[in-house]
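Case study.
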Amino acid sequence: MKINVTKAWCEKMARREAYAEVGAGLLAIDPTFEIESVSETSSDETRFVLQRFIELGRRGMGLSVEQLAEQADIEIAELISIESDIHHLPEPRTLYQLAQVFEVSQVKLMELSGLTNPKDVNYLEEAVRYAARSESIEKLNPEEQAALDGLISVLSKK
Amino acid sequence: MSKEENVEVSEVYLFDNPENAFVEAELWDAITEKNLADWEADWIPHLFKLLKSLKQKGVVRKLWPQSRHWHWSDKVKDIEGKLSNQCFSIVCDSSTQAMLITDLARRSQLDVQKHSHLVYVDFIEVAPWNRKELIGHSPKYSGAGSILIRAAIELSKQEGFRGRLGLHSLPQANDFYENKVGMTDLGLDKNYQNLRYFEMTPEQADEFVMKGEDS
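After joint prediction, the assembly is written out as follows.
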């Protein structure tokens, strides 16, 4: 089909559009976080740390899964998967939102999840130790509280 | 410029930013083998620059876009010959600058035109070198997005849909569709990777076209 568009129209609209991003539709999504089966890139240990940290952090704040999901503005199903499925790969945005709520480093949460490679592996060992000290029960006992405090400390370091 | 037969060509103009001048371009009413070849030969190398950037940021290799372009080619082959899909592309300087795929089988969700036929923009993208956000500096050409939206509007009118459009915008393009194109924001669509869904009414389509007319 022939489209009749004047030069003047093109000029005016090009100036109006300027440098705007115009992408629409799933096929236009930038590939930055196009994720395909990456579970093997992260060790179960680091995923376990992430899993335990989110759960402990949530319980430490006295929040249900639903309440944390609402506070962080993320999907409940995504949060449940993070806490219960060690092979689940979270969305980058989800980790960003959770990092904001828990006031820890988004970069480190990304590294724990396997979305990025850790630049400093030392803190991982420390984080794994803290996470391993806790077990999942209804309320945080003193050991769990100490583990959570330790995790926050480690994940907050710049 | 090689292209398949039966492709209707319309004369359009893009703004060449480095040259600070408007240049002639062609709006094709198809996505052809040439466009797909451009995608692989020209677009992909620029995407590799992005890959390099990802590597520098420490993003693991498994997350890199290993076969994204194949998905895209599959999509075009999938709709080949279907009457419910119309494609457009913009070619300038012998290279594809932007592409658009539409779907004519969708219905409107906006209350004032609910269930009416519309042209759904299934996909719209400009070449990597035309995206400032991607390349980090002034893009080569500007204006391709507006021309493709205009083409979608004209298609909608030709189909009797009076200019009605619908699309799921990428987050970085929300401002363009809401403020520069003037579409109505229907919010995040949980069934579509939480992308924001926008619709254009016939009145908004006319307003968009008028924005480019001489006042």
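Observations recorded in class. Chain A touches chain B at residues 1-5, 7-38, 40-41, 114-117, 119 (CB under 8 Å). Helices of chain A lie at 7-17, 44-60, 65-72, 76-84, 92-102, 106-113, 122-132, 142-156. We will return to this complex in the next lecture.
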